[in-house]
Amino acid sequence: MVGLLVMVLLFASLLPSPSSSSASSVIPSDASALLAFQVKADLKGKLGFSSNYSLGFCKWNGVKCSEGKVVRLVCERVGLDGVFAPDTLTRLDQLRVLSLQDNSLAGPIPDLSRLVNLKVLFLDSNLFSGLIPPSISTLHRLKTLDLSHNNLTGNIPASFNGLDRLYYLRLDSNRLNGSVPALNQTTLQIFNVSQNILSGPIPVTPTLSRFRTTAFASNKALCGEIIHKECRPIQPFFHPSPATTAPPPHSAKAVSQNAQLRDGGVYSPEKKSTKRSVLIIGLSLGFFVLICSIICFALAAKRSNKSISSSPKIALDPSVAAAETEAVMRIEEESNELEEKVKRVQEGMQVMGKSGNLVFSVGESQVYTLEQLMKASAELLGRGTLGTTYKAVLDNRLIVCVKRLDSGKMAGSSKDEFERHMESVGGLRHPNLVPLRAYFQAKEERLLVYDYQPNGSLFSLIHGSKSSRAKPLHWTSCLKIAEDVAQGLSYIHQAWRLVHGNLKSSNVLLGSDFEACISDYCLSVLANPFSDDDPDCAAYKAPEVRKLNPHHQATSKSDVYSYGVLVLELLTGKHPSEHPVLMPDEMMKWVRSTRDDDDGREENGIRLGMILEVAMVCSVASPEQRPTMWQVLKMIQEIKDAAIMEEDGREMDLLTGT
Prior knowledge:
Elements: H1 2-14, H2 18-24, H3 29-41, E1 63-66, E2 69-74, E3 97-99, E4 106-107, E5 120-122, E6 127-131, E7 144-146, E8 151-154, E9 168-170, E10 175-176, E11 190-192, E12 199-201, E13 221-223, H4 255-261, H5 284-309, H6 318-355, E14 359-360, H7 370-374, E15 377-383, E16 387-393, E17 399-405, H8 415-426, E18 436-442, E19 445-451, H9 458-463, H10 475-496, E20 508-510, E21 516-518, H11 535-538, H12 556-572, H13 584-593, H14 602-618, H15 629-656
Parallel strand pairs: 2-3, 3-5, 4-6, 5-7, 6-8, 7-9, 8-10, 9-11, 12-13
Antiparallel strand pairs: 1-2, 14-18, 15-16, 16-17, 17-19, 18-19, 20-21
Helix pairs in contact: 5-6, 10-12, 10-15, 12-14, 14-15
């Protein structure tokens, strides 16, 4: 009996345990992702990935791993003839290098936003079609991007300018249309968008100006200084044209994206009112009401006249008859006068239509008319120094932002001056500027039409809603926003010799990818000197353009001062009216006292101090001692580059085990 028991125990010990058996049956997540990709992309079985993952998927052809995770996948010229299916390779969350070039993969490029560590992406020389996925713009570690020699259509995303480590960008030999975005990464060294159907003026940025004309070749409708081809201006006034499909309205990002700016602190933007009043933008409301009133009076008068003239003839006292005749004549006279008024008002409307048309900026498609704009459903967004801003939803579901300028503030400029200036401002195109799409003026009325930015203002992001106090942004978010604003201001100053004149956090808006975009730029030169009664405006102003010297116009150096104040507001979360005047050492202590100190790491404190130094040198009292905006941008980029090198160094240490 004992011998039998011993034999049973020995036999049982030779069997695999249930836990070990189940563990061995689980396919590693990266192996599963590779196999899922092979099923859809490798219809002829060229890759040779084996379902026997126990042999080590890290040894499969083209696969390289680090610590059991795929960091590199190179499958070039292997005859892939299927599709790059969603939810396959995008599960490789540690992937650094992906190359599928020189195959026959077809269909759209999937959402790549989960490949947050990707640095190199080669998808060229395939049969990919459809749009360039916007998700590529979220891959902020990307250095190399090649989508050339495919069948891609649509626009080049302007958000590519946010890929601030990009070194290599090739999009040539596709069917891309639209304009060339104002790329301005200092890192970009290789660039080609030739052999597409791009159109419009090429933005003159320091980065794009470095490349030869061959980088833009075989795009017949491109023009501009860079390729030595004069741009033909469009008709300055609106003419009826075939209906154009309007782009879909921007959608707000999830709260989680906003939370990333705060490194874990969820920021809840203030809810906009759900009640929307239908506002008639411009002068049409007054004219419309007047016309309706006059017509009503006219019709009433005509009815009275008709009823009197058609009444039975009755023998009346001569005096009564005379009075009645006089009344009839008076009514007829009043009726004619009302009709004349209606005619004059209608003529006035026609004159206004001729003298005040919706003027689209050069290169812009005329996707709506003045009439459609004035009939738009509108929501009040706010009142500022220069006027009132509305969110307008047109019949074709296009959403725009309309700024109605205060006629009193803008009385200092004539009609011709306004038109000439708006023509220059309308030519500004940069990822960190809210583009001016069109403008309108008639008599005292002036409207500006911009893109609607869905994620609110930087003021709301920094200070939170009225019911909740937001904590200061993480220093990396401060650096990113500071660079975005510096890019936009530097572009205005360098490329066009213009100035903003009214920079403040409420005039910095957040785009669809939470990029910082400057609004209300280059308008102060047309306005009467601003009043310092508004402390929100006065706190940003340089000493030389404050109330004591109201006739001094804003300059590029006064913009630099406002920028310095804005950066200090970013770092502390305090409104400029709350900023104390302190010595540098005391200022650093005060800034630290306003923050949670970003996880206490020494290098974070160093970077924070460097950003503060930039803010302080920008906001010195003497304009001559302030740097130019171009120099400021270089300082910010040096801080960013140093932070990136440190991050890459730590990553290399982790990969090598040192």
